[in-house]
Amino acid sequence: MHAHLTEEGDEILARAPNPLQEDFIKKFQSLDEWEQTMILASLQRVANMMDADDIDASPVLHVGPVLREDGWKSETKS
Fold first, then answer.
1. Within 10 A of 48 (CB to CB), how many other CB atoms are there?
2. Against a cut of 0.85, is the pTM above it?
3. What is the dihedral of CA 62, 72, 5, 14, to 10 degrees?
4. Alpha-carbon gap, residue 57 to 47, rounded angstroms
5. Alpha helices by DSSP H, the chain
6. Helix (H/G/I), strand (E/B), else coil: 61
7. Could you say which DSSP state residue 66 is in?
8. How far apart are the C-alpha atoms of 31 and 14, rounded to whole Å?
9. Nearest one of 64, 60, 67 to 16, comparing CA atoms
């Protein structure tokens, strides 16, 4: 069995907003380096306070673009 995106589904996907993760990355990278460092230090401190240093979040988190070579389109229609 193979699932395929319909033309209507493709049009809806093309109009969908960017994933929150991508928007965050763009905004974070636009900050000055000192601001990025302060945010990172604060988040590391919070993680340490929650004893989260040894938690493996890799099964939950994925870093990188959502678009893949498995049929997702990297360009939106105009």
1. 10
2. no
3. 100
4. 12
5. 7-15, 20-30, 33-49
6. coil
7. S
8. 28
9. 67
Token pair 């395929």: residue: 4
Phi first, then psi: give them for residue 10, nearest 5 degrees: -65, -40
- Distance in angstroms (rounded) separating the CA atoms of residues 61 and 35: 23
The token pair at 61 is 């988190």
Contacts 24+ apart (CB under 8 A), 3-12: 5/71, 10/73, 10/77, 11/77
Q: What is the pLDDT along the chain (78 residues), one digit of tens a residue?
A: 788 888 888 888 888 877 777 888 889 999 999 999 999 999 989 988 888 777 776 666 655 655 545 454 544 444
**Which one-letter amino acid corresponds to residue 62?**
H
